[in-house]
């Protein structure tokens, strides 16, 4: 890469936004896996109440995202993506810190809804840096930004679990979990300050009266079918992730017949996709630019489908870990590819709204995937979750395949 390819100050903005995405992912995964344990220490809840409140605390963020993202997208096109990153990181810093002071489960659910209503750092940071990057580098840049969140998701549970374990020896009750929220809030405050003072955005504000209505904007897009297809792809890919994540530890327990260090093995299996994504992101990011994101996306969907078949048939958790590691490598060609296609198919002045709608579809996918995984595993078995998820990806592949030779451009 040549420095002349990029506008002045791009490298610093990229580093700050990458770190911001990393900390956002870290903060989420450092607190959310332990949310049910935190809630359990806040009152004498029955098993049903505990499951209900834990599920609501998880789902509320995504429900709020799906509802309000279009509003923030419109504001981003008028005021710029940097302001949206500041809004997301600032409110997250406040709400996560306050969540650490929660007196009961309802308080956590409400704070999670507020947090979801103002969230969107990673999506806005990705849109911001994509708009500052030459088109020939879009694939690599977007894959790096999304990988930052993945890396944070990898480190978060390890840091949160270690911190809680150490603090449990010194302070009892809910305090180890409260401190994890306090620490995350302070880290997000650093993200807010870094984004505010160190990130540069070349943006010209657009008056509200001069903005195209969303319906007219969509009709004016030369590749409207592709844009809608990417919305659907984002939803399905996110669903495929969220349908599996909540049941992984339970599936591992079944494979191990309830014997052995289940927590450790489940942790390895859960972390395997993130490790694969982290190791492959740079190489596949360059391939996105060389071969075109549609081609990478198409074959990524097919390979992901094929990987889900043996996952439903495994008899060893270590085999499952290897297959999920391979899935993590393939995942670099899914969500980053879809967002690269959106970047290349959307006018710069409409980035905010298009990416916000994509975020809404991503949030819907998270809710649907969670319901799919818990519903199927509850009424049938864990293996069927993998079969159904693979079928969804196969349908997505068949829809995308006719466009696989298309090289999107503005």
Automatic annotation (TrEMBL):
Localization in the cell: Cell membrane
UniProt keyword annotation of Glycosyltransferase present: no
Stretches that traverse the bilayer: 15-40, 52-72, 93-114, 179-199, 220-242, 262-284, 296-315, 321-342, 363-380, 386-404
GO cellular component, one term: plasma membrane
Matching SUPFAM superfamilies: MFS general substrate transporter
PROSITE patterns: MFS
Record membrane topology: Multi-pass membrane protein
Major facilitator superfamily (MFS) profile domain: residues covered: 13-408
Keywords: Cell membrane, Membrane, Transmembrane, Transmembrane helix, Transport
InterPro entries named in the record: MFS, MFS_dom, MFS_trans_sf
Molecular function in Gene Ontology: transmembrane transporter activity
Keyword Calcium: no
Protein name (database record): Major facilitator superfamily transporter
């Amino acid at each position: 890469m040549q420095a002349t390819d990029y506008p002045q100050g791009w490298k610093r903005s990229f580093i700050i936004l990458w770190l911001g995405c990393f900390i956002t992912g870290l903060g989420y995964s450092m607190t959310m896996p332990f949310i049910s344990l935190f809630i359990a220490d806040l009152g004498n809840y029955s098993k049903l109440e505990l499951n209900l409140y834990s599920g609501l605390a998880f789902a509320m963020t995504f429900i709020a995202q799906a509802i309000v993202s279009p509003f923030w997208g419109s504001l981003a096109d008028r005021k710029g993506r940097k302001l949206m990153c500041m809004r997301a990181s600032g409110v997250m810093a406040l709400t996560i810190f306050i969540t650490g002071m929660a007196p009961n489960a309802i308080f956590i659910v409400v704070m999670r809804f507020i947090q979801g209503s103002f969230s969107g750092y990673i999506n806005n940071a990705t849109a911001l840096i994509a708009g500052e990057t030459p088109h020939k580098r879009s694939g690599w840049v977007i894959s790096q930004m999304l990988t930052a969140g993945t890396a944070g998701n990898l480190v978060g549970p390890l840091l949160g679990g270690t911190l809680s374990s150490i603090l449990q020896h010194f302070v009892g009750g809910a305090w180890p979990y409260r401190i994890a929220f306090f620490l995350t809030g302070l880290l997000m405050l650093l993200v807010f300050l870094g984004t505010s003072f160190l990130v540069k955005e070349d943006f010209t504000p657009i008056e509200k009266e001069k903005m195209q209505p969303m319906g007219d904007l969509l009709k004016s897009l030369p590749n409207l079918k592709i844009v809608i297809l990417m919305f659907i792809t984002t939803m399905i890919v996110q669903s495929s992730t969220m349908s599996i994540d909540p049941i992984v530890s339970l599936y591992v327990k079944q494979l191990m017949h309830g014997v052995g260090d289940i927590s450790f093995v489940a942790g390895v299996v859960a972390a395997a996709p993130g490790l694969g994504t982290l190791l492959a992101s740079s190489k596949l990011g360059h391939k996105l630019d060389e071969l075109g994101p549609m081609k990478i996306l198409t074959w990524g969907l097919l390979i992901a489908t094929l990987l889900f078949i043996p996952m439903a048939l495994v008899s060893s958790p270590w085999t499952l870990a290897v297959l999920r590691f391979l899935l993590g490598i393939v995942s670099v060609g899914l969500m980053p590819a879809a967002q690269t296609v959106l970047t290349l198919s959307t006018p710069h002045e409409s980035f905010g709204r298009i990416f916000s709608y994509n975020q809404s579809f991503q949030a819907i996918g998270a809710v649907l995937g969670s319901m799919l995984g818990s519903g199927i595993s509850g009424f049938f078995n864990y293996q069927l979750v993998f079969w159904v998820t693979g079928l969804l990806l196969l349908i997505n592949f068949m829809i995308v395949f006719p466009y696989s030779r298309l090289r999107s451009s503005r």
